[in-house]
Amino acid sequence: MQSPLFQHTEQQSADRYTLQNAQMLRVSLSGHDDVLARKGSMVAYQGLIEFDGEYQSRGQQRSRSHTGEGLDLMRCSGQGSVFLANLAQYVHVVDVDHDGLTVDSAYVLALDSGLHHEVIAVDSQYGISGSGKYQLNITGSGKVALMTSGQPLMVQVTPDKYVNADADAIVAWSSSLRVQMQAQTHSSGVWRRRGSTGEGWELSFLGQGYALVQPSEVLPPQNVQIGQGIRAQYGMGQQGAYGQNRNNAWN
Prior knowledge:
CATH superfamily of the largest domain: Mitochondrial biogenesis AIM24
Order of helices and strands: EEEEHEEEEEEEEEEEEEHH
Number of strands: 17
CATH topology of the largest domain: Double-stranded beta-helix
Oligomer: single chain
CATH class of the largest domain: Alpha Beta
CATH architecture of the largest domain: 4-Layer Sandwich
Helix content: under 10%
């Protein structure tokens, strides 16, 4: 059998995390170093690998119920390799150090089991689409695999160069950064987008660190039917993207 498909063979490496291509990750397990992966993200595996649901403490369950933010994880253990992917999104491996990483849980593909994660509040009094009020803060020493829709931009933030990012496009940032949510609009209605530009809420980052931005602004699934009117525009109620697309992979 011959085919150009045979160009897409497994990428050999001694590293624990190895990108097979831009949209698929291989994690090597040696029997004592479990990895926590997004539920349902396994596309293939080799060797003796076991998959178990990851236990959530009562505190984590309460936090998830109150904020809507949290990780649905499975524990991958054993000896061999597990291949992970999600909706053909681009995968990026990040080293987490003492600075920590703040990220939207929707963009986490996998992380080392030794890392700690908890829900934190973003500086906002409004629960809006996109980043919203709450995020995950990941601390410790290890690696996290993030996902983006398209190739992202890593923007450096310095004390003399702060950065603003669309709240619907931001993926993650250094936990050491100070964050403020704002809507620079001349409209008297806080929910109204900036004039007729379609721009609305932003996150402003100050301090020393990095912010990761993707070239996509939290879009609903392809070919979805979205309702009409102002509530639909902002994804609110039964007329919005969320209300009309419950239980799909994007929610």
